[in-house]
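**Reference record**
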Amino acid sequence: MRVLVSGASIAGPVLAYWLTRYGHEVTVVERSPVLRKTGGHAVDLFKPAMDISERMGVLPRIESLATGTERITFLREGTRRPISADATKLFGAASDRHVEIMRDVREGGTAEVRSGDRRGRVAFERAPAGVR
């Protein structure tokens, strides 16, 4: 089956991986003209994403790209002093598995990715009856 996935951020390529693994021909379309680099924003992967990454066989690579952030500092509007917290303890309270990587880290894959392509949006908005 040929499948069109709209969006090449995080979920789109993961979906493409699994669909390809189960024998589907996948094309990922991204309306941005190039794969986005978000200017230094990080992505936190918690237990569910870590488990999926492990099943995909990419967890060691993801862990090797960890940012190593140890402290987080907040400055609330109207206050003079920042609040600093131990990131390990903070994230550890939310999940027993966590890694932070930069959002623009993307490598490999077997799906075709077309940047600057808006067809995914059109395909979902105007899909014929019976198409899911």
Remarks:
- The chain has two domains: 1-35+106-132, 38-105.
- The first strand starts at residue 2 and ends at 6.
